[in-house]
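The data are quoted verbatim here:
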Amino acid sequence: MNRILFIFSITFSILGFSQSEQNQKKYNVLFIIADDLTATAVSAYENTASSTPNIDLLANEGTLYTHAYSQYPVCGPSRASLMFGYYPNATQTYGYVSGRKNVGMERKSWPQLFKDNGYYTARVSKIYHMGVPGDIEKGSNGKDDEASWSERFNSQGPEWQALGEAELVQNNPFA
C-alpha cells in the first residue's frame, strides 16, 4: 500500500511540476501588419530593389508566409475579420470602420486575449480603421479598439514627412 501511495505521489509531483513549468513559459509574439505592403517590397521575398535586413532576419528566424488571403476587398471588414476571427458577414462590418461596434464587447480580439493572459500588447499607428490622414496627423487613437492594447503609439504625420532618408522607387519591377 505504501509503495502505491509513493508511486502516486511521485507521479502527481512530476505532472504538477511539468504543468507549472509549462504555464510559466510564454512565447514572444510579434505581429507586423502594414497598409499596402506587398511581399514584393521586402527583400526576404527576393526583391533585389529593396533592402530590408531586419525584416529578413525575422523571416529567417521565424515564419515566412508565402500565401495571403483577404476576406473582403476593403480595409475595415478585412481588419475586423483578421483581428476578431469572424467573417465580415458575421460581424456585419462592411465599410471603413474598426469593427468593434459591430462585433460587440462580448467578443474578444486576439490581442485582447493575449492581454488578458498576461501579455503586453502594443500597436504602432493604425491597426484598426482610423481617420486617415486626420486622426493620425493629430496623434489621435481614432476608432481604435482600446480593449486590445496595453499601450498605443501614434505616428504624428504622414510618413513622407518623417525624419530620415527615404526614396520612392519609381518603375520598380517588383512593386
